[in-house]
Design goal:
Chain A: It is found in: Cytoplasm, Myofibril, Sarcomere; Sarcoplasmic reticulum. The structure holds two protein chains of two kinds. Chain A is an alpha+beta fold. Helix content of chain A is 35%, strand content 11%. Chain B has three domains: 99 residues, Pleckstrin-homology domain (PH domain)/Phosphotyrosine-binding domain (PTB) (PH-domain like, Roll); 371 residues, no CATH class; 31 residues. The chains are: A alpha+beta, B alpha+beta.
């Protein structure tokens, strides 16, 4: 029954990256095409390296139509070890999760990926020893705890000549100058300063080498509690109000210690609540937003809805789709986060107050909120380099624990939480609501989210700048000379050819007209007019804040009026936010000005491109947003070629021949899954639901009625 | 109180064009207050009054309401910008008095108006001197002219349009477009005077091999004589979509040899030997239950060459209740806390899914199954119309153009007797009539879902669909009045009223989708999955200023800018070439046509 061309056994070798080693392999593996319920598929070799799991198609020679959008590092049939989400074995039709040691080897292997692909491999025709080796190899290398230094990142960095100079426009925030420039860009340099206190990481290993604090904060206080209780600057608004973040003290049992900490905090608050500093509002994100645990639970449920085994599964879950979606709570979390970011924006923009975000480590939800606020308020953050710089500033250098949150090393599931994905999902909502406002596309966000699992870039594989710096030196690997030179994910040319890179740029984006210095004032004025609202809205809130009651009380006593206000907890919509929201939405949108998301139920959507891209049943043949996007791209090219033509005519150099071809021809035929899944579905058979709902218990009497009751039996003859 | 958005969203709705026309008409009889109150030719003022409009979004608005024989128009007196309400009386479903002469509390005395287009209006009036009696009576009279022996506004409308919408649909030329008649299908005039079936059009296409006598015999066995006739023929496979009503099988399981033979003739007419597929739009149980009242379905014994499937689409009552529930969760406020499960509990999108799924099956069968299809429900004027018209929209790109879609509505809905008058209740005060049901709205929603999934496949835009729905209720045009072609002819609707298509075709650019790419003969199958179906926010929630799409759509705007830029380049290029060519007398290969100019790609990224 094995109908493969046995003896040919032509050597299909995996394409290995520098530093990549083949660990184990198995041949005659049958990979099912997910496309339909039939058992169609191809035979090939399944291999596992120290970087990826890869399926090598036996007849891969037929590579005649090279996809337009291809990742150079991770191919269609490659799964990086960090991208593996869960592995199931099928034993007698039963699915079993594979984690550690295996006693029995399955006849089928299902690999669920973090980028939501699902691979089905049949091992029935594979030799038994090979099955053992490949299954235990894959499970071991992708599912068991790992040392940091065993990440492929290091092998790659030591073997690959890094000749990219990293000279892209992204600000990395690794130097003092980067911070100073950012202060200057946002005009925050009057009241805030970049400090060198953490050089040599003498303050804290969690904090970046350089960061920015209010000018009045002394080096002494920064050092006192390893930077805890210190307001750290994120960004300054055009009106001078600043967004700050602060990590709190761990819960102290000891009374006197906590008394001291409180006194320290009060001192800090007092200093930064005095003029020239604006009124301060605080927001304890750990009590006003869902916990990391909630976020993790929600996302785990949510992604499950898109990891679809087969067509039956797809249609079975379709029946109760909306309630399933709601029960995950993921969209609701997105909504709450967006709302919180708007509250902060309102405080900065309308009330001219400083906002201090508080969180235990100040490296999770603080990053989400501060990034979102900047995306909404600072149009620079909506350019590609601006957004990348923002991710560097708030997340990479800011100290978000990517390694732990993504659980790249399989150390502890407790630490795992898709905080960065949450940000991307929120930004996507804005991108789809305001397409012309962003220089990048949703495809950019999708490939960025995929890059979380590609361990050739250092960007998402360290917990902090300190961790990266100390592991960069390469001392432990004696064979290697000198420090590692890691790649940054922002060098997109590592993953994509220029042709594919085009899909990351938004053709609808209109660059902000660059005013020269003399005009800048008027531009700013216009910007303000767009945003300004009656000032009466800054009503003091009577609601209770978030601080533990006694602290709250204490602070009020000590500081009196200047710091009595707290951002409301999000249960009830604060009136000022409602007015801010309504007023902004009643005006035409300035794509280079403030941008507020719409957050009513119907406006928060599923990021279809990321989550539906591999599901054949969800494919719209010739449809989807790509259909319009492709038309716009085609037209832009036409306009450009006309421009060239015009220039030629002007110079009277008559060139009759037309050589190059538009990039996307026949755009109406593209599938909505483009540019991701490349399903060659020749027959355009429509997808038909296999299970439908018929249950209308509550309306039984109506259901049974006929449209119009007429006795037809009398009509006869 | 009222935010600035109010006037904007109201003007965003019905009658954008009417104000333009009215301002052209400043004759002496215009209203004293000011000239900005829109009026159509033929529209006459009836009364006006000071009221408080209880805006559900912005609170009470003081204003003056003007009532004509066509519309209710409110203009605020204190707000800046001015709040405007412009409501054709045709959309009114119910008018109720709220509060009594003795009710206490501010603004508790007045009128409550329920509309057919997903909104309610509430006006508070002064309690003294039964101030609302007059306005209540006037409104009732003109909103429900049929209940007061008054003509529809369409019959007094004196608008003029450059295009004549009544010319859009000519059944003969539509069938000719489809390649009919041919050697297997003929046109019959048996129903010329509606003698065979008074809810069918006068012109029918039937199998060549069936005589008019056969048709009469078949009519006896089909509910309301609605015999199987051709709706559409596939240009390649020659498979056809037929429509009809249920067979009169009854409890005893009656059979009719003529009907059986007739279906066999249909089956054979596409030159294939496969079975005839019958889609009964109803759920199985309902089809069975229909036997009790004399109806039923084609049993296996009687029709061995047919394959019957049920499509499980529910009846008009279920659909009406579903829309009612939808209104509850979107008006006036959008359900806040559990939006998705609330939406699911209305079942509205689930019904849409079932209708689309049914239509996909019909279309797929005809285009790839190579078997002819017969579609019916009970009477064949609700679910059947949805299925045949949607399947035709999927299979025939002509129907995806503006004119083609007008033809589709004229043909499958109007000429085949969808009971618009009963389903909408035009001018009828009986708001609780169980004959009312949003079947046509559901069809338009399905079309919208398709256009959303395939944004380049339709020549018309969302505004086109919304305009159709607005005038489904407005009674400004004769298009949707009455239940059948027979009745419309009797009332001389085409002579005495204007067609909605006149309005649309006279200003086509407004209803054109900028992204449309013409593609011929391509089947377009939407994905009937909840993952892709969406609530049509721009229609169902359009009165809510908080939920509003950016108008105009920025993506479309950018595209139009680019188009203009391209055309400008092409023009300038041509000019340049002419001057250059005249300079260089020995001409060269520069006679490049615009299409050839699509070259020279420079990566602009």
């Amino acid at each position: 029954e094995i109908h493969i061309k046995e003896p040919i056994e032509k050597e299909v070798n995996p394409h290995l990256l520098p530093g990549e080693l083949l660990l184990c392999e198995a041949s005659t593996v049958y990979k099912y095409v997910q496309e339909d319920g039939s058992n169609r598929g191809t035979y090939g070799k399944l291999v596992c390296t120290n970087f990826k799991i890869s399926f090598l198609d036996d007849d891969s020679a037929s590579d005649d139509n090279e996809p337009q959008f291809k990742n150079k590092i991770v191919g269609e049939n490659d799964i990086t070890l960090q991208c593996v989400d869960q592995i199931y074995g099928v034993y007698d039709e039963k699915k079993k999760l594979l984690t550690g040691q295996l006693r029995k080897y399955p006849e089928k292997l299902i690999i669920y990926c973090k980028d939501l692909r699902v691979f089905n491999f049949c091992l029935r025709y594979t030799k038994e020893e090979e099955v053992k080796r490949i299954v235990s190899g894959i499970v071991h290398h992708s599912q068991t705890p790992k040392l940091l230094k065993r990440l492929f990142l290091f092998s790659y960095a030591s073997a690959a000549p890094n000749n990219t100079d990293g000279r892209n426009q992204t600000v990395m925030f690794e130097t003092l100058e980067d911070w100073r420039d950012e202060l200057e860009r946002t005009k925050g340099n009057v009241k805030y300063k970049a400090v060198t206190t953490n050089e040599g990481y003498r303050v804290s290993e969690k904090l970046p080498l350089y960061f920015v604090v209010p000018i009045c904060i002394s080096e002494e206080s920064i050092l006192k509690y390893e930077g805890r209780g210190i307001p750290i600057w994120c960004w300054s608004c055009h009106n001078g109000a600043a967004l700050l973040k602060m990590s709190t003290f761990p819960k102290e049992q000891d009374d006197s210690t906590s008394q001291m900490q409180k006194a320290f905090l009060d001192g800090i608050y007092k200093t930064i609540s005095k003029p020239p500093y604006e009124l301060l509002k605080m927001d304890d994100l750990s009590s006003s937003l869902p916990s990391l645990q909630d976020i993790q639970t929600a996302y785990t449920r949510f992604k499950q809805l898109f990891l679809i085994d087969n067509s039956t599964d797809f249609w079975a879950t379709d029946v109760k789709w909306f309630s399933l979606l709601e029960s995950t709570n993921w969209l609701e979390i997105i909504r709450r986060v967006l709302k919180k970011a708007m509250e902060v924006a309102e405080c900065l923009e309308i009330q001219h107050t400083n906002v201090l975000l508080i969180e235990e480590s100040a490296t999770d939800l603080c990053c989400v909120i501060s990034s979102l606020v900047q995306v909404m308020m600072d149009s620079y953050s909506r350019t590609k380099s601006g957004f990348q710089s923002l991710i560097q500033k708030e997340w990479v250098i800011g100290g978000h624990s990517f390694l732990d949150r993504c659980n790249h090393l399989h150390k502890s599931e407790k630490e795992e939480a898709p905080v960065f994905l949450l940000l991307l999902n929120c930004v996507w909502q804005l991108v789809q609501q305001y397409p012309p406002a962003f220089e990048f596309t949703e495809t950019y966000l999708t490939v960025l989210s995929d890059s979380l699992y590609v361990p050739i870039f250092s960007t998402f594989f360290f917990n902090s700048q300190h961790q990266r710096d100390t592991n960069k030196s390469g001392e432990s690997l004696k064979t290697q000379s000198g420090p590692f030179r890691f790649l940054t994910v922002w060098d997109w040319s590592v993953q994509f050819e220029p042709k594919a890179l085009a899909f990351l740029n938004n053709p609808l984006y209109a660059e902000k007209p660059k005013p020269d210095r003399s005009q800048r004032k008027t531009a700013r004025f216009k910007h303000q007019r767009q945003l300004s609202l009656p000032l009466t809205q800054a009503k003091p809130s009577t609601k209770r804040g978030f601080f533990r009651e006694e602290t709250d009380h204490l602070i009020k006593n000590i500081l009196g009026k200047r710091i009595g206000k707290f951002i409301n907890s999000s249960d009830e919509p604060p009136n000022s936010l409602r007015e801010f929201y309504d007023s902004w939405h009643s005006k035409p949108v300035d794509y280079h000005g403030l941008l507020l998301p719409r957050i009513d139920g119907p406006e928060i959507k599923v990021w279809a491109q990321r989550y539906l891209r591999w599901i054949p049943e969800a494919q719209l043949h010739g449809g989807g947003t790509i259909a319009t996007a492709a038309k716009i791209l085609d037209l832009m090219e036409e306009v450009q070629s006309l421009q060239v033509k015009m220039d030629e005519e002007h110079s009277q150099s008559v060139s009759g021949d037309a050589h190059s071809v538009p990039m996307l021809r026949n755009s109406a035929r593209l599938s909505s899954l483009f540019p991701f899944a490349l399903l060659q579905r020749q027959s355009v058979k429509p997808a038909l639901p296999t299970s439908t709902w018929k249950d209308l218990e509550d309306e039984d009497d109506l259901v049974k009625r006929d449209d119009e009751f007429v006795d037809l039996s009398g009509d006869m003859l | 109180m009222a935010s600035s958005s109010t006037s904007k969203y109201n003007s965003n709705s019905l009658e954008n064009s009417s104000s333009k026309q009215a301002s052209n008409l400043k004759d002496g009889t215009n209203w004293e207050q000011n000239e900005e109150i829109p009026r159509l030719p033929g529209e006459t003022r009836v009364t006006d009054k000071d009221v408080i409009y209880m805006c559900p979004f912005n609170g009470p608005v003081k204003g003056r309401v003007y009532i004509t024989n066509y519309r209710l128009y409110l203009r605020s007196v204190e707000n800046d910008p001015v709040v405007i309400l412009n409501v054709p009386l045709g959309v009114i479903s119910r008018i109720e008095k709220m509060g009594g002469a003795s009710s206490r509390g501010e603004n508790s005395y007045g009128l409550d108006i329920t509309c057919k287009d997903m909104r309610n209006l509430r006006f508070a009036l002064k309690q003294e001197g039964h101030s609302r009696r007059d306005i209540f009576e006037v409104l009732t009279k003109y909103a429900f002219p049929q209940s007061h022996s008054l003509p529809f506004f369409a019959f007094v409308n004196e608008e003029k349009f450059p295009e004549n919408g009544w010319m859009v649909y000519n059944p003969m030329s539509e069938y000719r477009r489809q390649g009919l008649p041919n050697e297997r299908w003929r046109v019959t005039f048996i129903n010329e005077h509606y003698g065979l079936c008074d809810t069918y059009p006068s012109l029918l296409v039937v199998p060549y091999n069936a005589t008019d006598d056969d048709l009469k015999k078949v009519a006896a066995f089909r509910s309301r004589n609605r015999i199987p006739v051709l709706s559409w023929i596939h240009p390649e496979t020659q498979a056809v979509i037929m429509r009809c009503s249920q067979p009169l099988v009854g409890m005893s399981g009656k059979r009719n040899k003529d009907d059986e033979r007739y279906l066999d003739i249909i089956r054979e007419a596409n030159g294939q030997i496969s079975k005839l597929t019958i889609y009964d739009a109803r759920p199985n149980v309902n089809a069975v239950a229909n036997k009790a009242t004399g109806g039923g379905y084609e049993g296996e014994d009687a029709y061995p060459n047919a394959e019957l499937s049920f499509l499980d689409i529910h009846n008009i009552h279920v659909m009406r209740e579903s829309l009612k529930k939808l209104k509850d969760i979107v008006y006036p406020n959008v359900e806040e806390s559990h939006w998705l499960s609330s939406l699911e509990s209305t079942h509205w999108l689930e019904h849409i899914k079932l209708v689309l799924t049914g239509a996909i099956q019909v279309a797929d069968k005809v285009s790839s199954g190579r078997s002819s299809v017969l579609v019916h429900c009970s009477d064949g004027w609700d679910r059947t119309a949805q299925l045949t018209s949607l399947a035709m929209l999927m299979l025939d790109s002509y129907y995806r153009t503006i004119e083609g879609f007008e033809v589709l509505v004229q043909k499958e809905w109007l000429s085949f007797g969808h009971k618009f008058a009963s389903r909408i209740g035009h001018g009828d005060k009986n708001h609780a009539d169980t004959d009312r049901s949003p079947i046509f709205l559901q069809f338009i929603d399905c079309v919208w879902q398709m256009s959303k999934q395939f944004p380049t496949a339709f020549e018309f835009n969302e505004q086109f669909l919304i305009t159709i729905l607005d005038h489904l209720y407005s009674c400004r045009f004769g298009t949707f009045l009455y239940n059948s072609e027979f009745l419309r002819e009797k009332e001389k609707v085409a002579d005495r009223t204007l067609s909605l298509w006149s309005l649309i075709n006279s200003d086509k650019s407004k209803y054109t989708n900028a992204f449309y790419s013409k593609e011929l003969n391509r089947a377009l199958y939407p994905v009937a999955s909840m993952r892709h179906l969406e609530l049509w926010v721009n229609y169902y929630i359009r009165w809510n200023p908080r939920i509003r799409q950016q108008q105009p759509n920025p993506v479309e705007q950018r595209y139009l800018e680019l188009l203009a830029l391209r055309d400008d380049y092409i023009r300038r290029l041509e000019e340049l070439q002419i001057t250059n060519n005249s300079k260089i007398s020995n001409s060269s290969a520069s006679s490049t046509s615009p299409s050839q100019m699509v070259s020279q790609v420079q990566t602009h990224f």
